[in-house]
Design goal:
The chain is α/β, with parallel strands linked by helices. The chain is built from twelve helices and 24 strands. It is 28% helix and 29% strand. Strands 14, 15, 16, 17, 18, 19, 20, 21, 22, 23 and 24 form an eleven-stranded mixed sheet that branches. Strands 5-4-6-7-3-8-9-10-11 form a nine-stranded mixed sheet. It has a two-stranded antiparallel sheet with strand order 1-2. Helix 5 runs parallel beside helix 7.
Length: 472
């Protein structure tokens, strides 16, 4: 039987919660959130009327209350019991200088004979590693912890034990005594951005989502953002939809297939966002919903673009003003999933996709999230547009970063020079579903008329260099 941890997102990772009556280990460095995690687990039970014990080897009642107050948790709840073992620390060296079974048994009994323990359904033991620090013989530490865990398991008490993360593998023996192990980390990237993650490294209760997931410490406690598959629906049919611009449809190869990934790439100012707005506008005219996650422009700025450039007022285009700062990739991923569930969009656009780099600890984690997202959107027949801000020279038609290979369409915008004038041009580099036009076209934008795509550039040279010359 599973019970809820009370930590948003964590039950989803564990496919319903933790197993009732089992013992789990939470590990992490200083400030990683171990105490908050355990306290939140207890408060979930106390609110439901369960007897919950907090056995502390480190924090005093006063310190604990200060932490609880920050999240609005009332540890004076009659179902919440604080068991103070912090003052015993001064006596620990005396305990473990001896190896007699009597003294070991005495200490174990001091824990297992707590008057409220038999009535408890949840227990959190905070800072059990303190015992290890005072133990000269690690076998004594293992014997003590093993005895406590066996007692709690036999009595069907669901328990979480916190331990400080250690580098020495021989001191991680408690991991072998528990049914699951979770690691909390506060990780700093090279650029100074800090992320909090939780990793499920061990779980004996069946299939769960092992691996690393992001979390935040909010004013309501820990919130975990699971990077797992949420959407299992499948929509039949892969019809092709129009972009609303005849020449753009022709350039692509007839339009965009539903459920496809479209990358629109190029340097700043080549018209990537306006092309995306054109596609969303046609979608809006069909009476379908589109969502754009904008990292550079506010909603009123996008609406102004629609008004001034296209002479159009959208009705079903949702603009999500987003910032990469203060948000991790797991949080963003969950936001997209919730929008898909609530809005049922037919197009999702991210402008630019590069901003997601700042939300993840590594590029490999970003690729993992994008692949998972793309897979679900494809199954639902949702077009996924990724605007990619290119940094490399555009005369070499290359795409870096590892995200282009799962795009079905790649549209490249470029600046070119023609007789001393800078012009914007478009070319399609990829259409996974069929043929596409291989010539370059001029892109123009005029207020009130939207975008205009000219005829293919023929009988001219220098296209690869970016300096267009009439062929002699």
């Amino acid at each position: 039987m599973k019970i809820s941890t009370g930590i948003p997102g964590f039950d989803e990772i564990l496919n319903g919660g933790i197993e009732k009556g089992w013992v789990y280990l939470i590990k992490g460095g200083p400030g990683s959130g171990k105490t908050i995690f355990g306290l939140q687990f207890l408060m979930e039970g106390a609110i439901k009327g369960e007897r919950c014990l907090y056995i502390s080897f480190e924090q005093s009642m006063e310190e604990l209350k200060l932490q609880a107050d920050k999240f609005g948790w009332n540890i004076e709840n009659p179902n919440f019991v604080y068991v103070d073992r912090t003052m015993k620390n001064a006596d620990l060296p005396e305990y473990f200088d001896y190896s007699s079974f009597g003294e070991i048994h005495e200490f174990i009994t001091s824990i297992t004979s707590v008057r409220e323990l038999p009535e408890a359904s949840r227990v959190f033991i905070d800072g059990i590693g303190v015992l290890r620090d005072f133990t000269k013989d690690l076998s004594i530490y293992r014997r003590i912890v093993s005895s406590i865990i066996n007692f709690l398991t036999k009595n069907g008490i669901t328990t979480i034990i916190s331990e400080e993360m250690r580098d020495e593998p021989e001191k991680g023996m408690i991991s072998y005594l528990t049914s699951g192990e979770f690691i909390l980390e506060k990780r700093e990237r090279e650029d100074g951005e800090i992320f909090r993650t939780i990793s499920v490294v061990k779980y004996r209760g069946g299939r769960v989502h092992l691996g690393r997931h992001y979390f935040d410490i909010t004013d309501r406690g820990i919130v975990i953002w699971p990077i797992i598959r949420f959407l299992d629906d499948y929509r039949n049919g892969r019809d092709t939809i129009s972009t609303g611009n005849e020449n753009l449809d022709s350039l692509i190869g007839g339009g965009i297939q539903r459920g496809s990934e479209v990358m629109i790439a190029g340097k700043s100012g080549v018209g990537k966002t306006n092309l995306t707005l054109q596609i969303l506008m046609e979608n809006d005219r069909r009476g379908e919903t589109g969502v754009i996650y904008s990292f550079e422009e506010k909603e009123n700025e996008i609406n102004t673009r629609y008004s001034e450039l296209f002479g159009y007022r959208p009705s079903r285009i949702v603009v999500r003003e987003t910032s990469p700062y203060g948000m991790n990739i797991g949080h963003f991923y969950k936001m997209v999933i919730e929008d898909v569930r609530e809005l049922s969009p037919s197009i999702i656009a991210i402008d630019p996709i590069n901003a997601l780099d700042k939300m993840s600890f590594s590029r490999s984690e970003l690729i993992r999230v994008l692949q998972l997202l793309c897979s679900q959107l494809k199954d639902l027949g949702i077009v996924f547009i990724q605007i990619h801000e290119s940094a490399e020279a555009m005369d070499v038609f290359q795409f870096t970063g590892g995200i282009s290979y799962f795009s079905d369409y790649i549209i490249l915008g470029r600046h070119m020079e023609m007789e001393g004038e800078i012009i914007k041009t478009l070319a399609v580099m990829k259409n996974r579903f069929g043929d596409h036009e291989r010539r370059i076209r001029i892109l123009e934008m005029e207020k009130g008329r939207g975008i205009t795509i000219g005829p293919p550039l023929k009988d001219i040279g220098g296209l690869m260099s970016g300096i267009i010359k009439k062929a002699e």
